[in-house]
Amino acid sequence: MAEERPVLYSFRRCPYAIRARLALAGAGLLPGPDLELREVSLKARPPELLVASAKGTVPVLVAAGDGSAAAAVRDESLAIMHWALERCDPQGWLEGWSAADRARMTELTAVNDGPFKHHLDRFKYPERFAAEGPAAPLRAHHRAAGLVNLRDWNTRLQRGGWLLGPRPCLADWALLPFVRQFRLADPAGFDAEPGLELLRPWLQRFLDGPELAAVMTTPWAERSPWRSPGWLYHLALRPEWQQARAAGEYRRSTRGRSLEDEGFIHLSAAHQVEATASRFYADLPVGGLLLLVVDPQRLAAAGLTVRWEAPHGSAASSAELFPHLHGPLPVDAVVLAESFAPVSAR
Ligand SMILES: N[C@@H](CCC(=O)N[C@@H](CS)C(=O)NCC(=O)O)C(=O)O
Questions:
Q1: Which end of the chain is more exposed for a tag (fewer CB within 10 A), N or C?
Q2: Please, which pLDDT band fits residue 66 given cuts at 50, 70 and 90?
């Protein structure tokens, strides 16, 4: 079913997601009133994201349907930028540029997303590409290759400080998060590199400017992942989870009670986590409590049963029902174990 507001699946540090957020923010949209932001963990993508787009990359925008049409999914950052700017483009990122300029923007983003990103990944994380050769020479080779792109972009800035002239266009905003990453991989090297004399102030203006700052903080960027209703949750004491990892299964039911004491493990649905935390764990020091994110499909695949039941002692007809796992929790049904931060503290 189509959501009322568009939903953006995002990841705070992802350069593709940053460029999408820059365009959405530039179009005057705000998480909350105008769209729902769902921060994801790349270690555990929520099922809703994978239903929207099976490739599982971020960002993804699921635009509200018009009531009859199915929700439209945009799972490429540039398509999300276009979607935003077609709605509102007050700074003229696309408006006011000729067809030839727009073709240049497309060429620039294609070079960035293709060869430059290829070199950037290998320069930043050579150890992830061990099959391609030893880290140090691989890093040096791809740094040099990426610099060829950067010098070309530097030359283009001569006509007015921005890639296509005197004002920023879509291509500037689309490339800047990636150039930022290139610099972050070796700031001193970047700052001393000849041939980047115009590129450095172009990047610096972005690093110091309000646009990036806005999309790296709430409400555009959350530090904890969105709690998917497609998953189940359990609050665990850190040492007890560490023991479970060593054993392969978790056998605590709730604070101070074991699976054997209680007969099942207490779980919460997404909307029940906060109340459970404040009812039973509010006195714990920060860092002592973990939120285990449980995939119910993995429980079912392991033959385990979750029953929605009333808490002990309450009348089943009026009580709020909670998911109870009747059996031990296999460690590999836990897709994520993160420090618990109440929504109020995020
Ligand atoms: N072409 C896509 C690329 C998006 C992309 O690769 N995002 C990264 C995060 S920075 C991702 O989701 N990686 C996870 C994966 O590829 O499995 C776009 O422009 O949106």
A1: N
A2: low
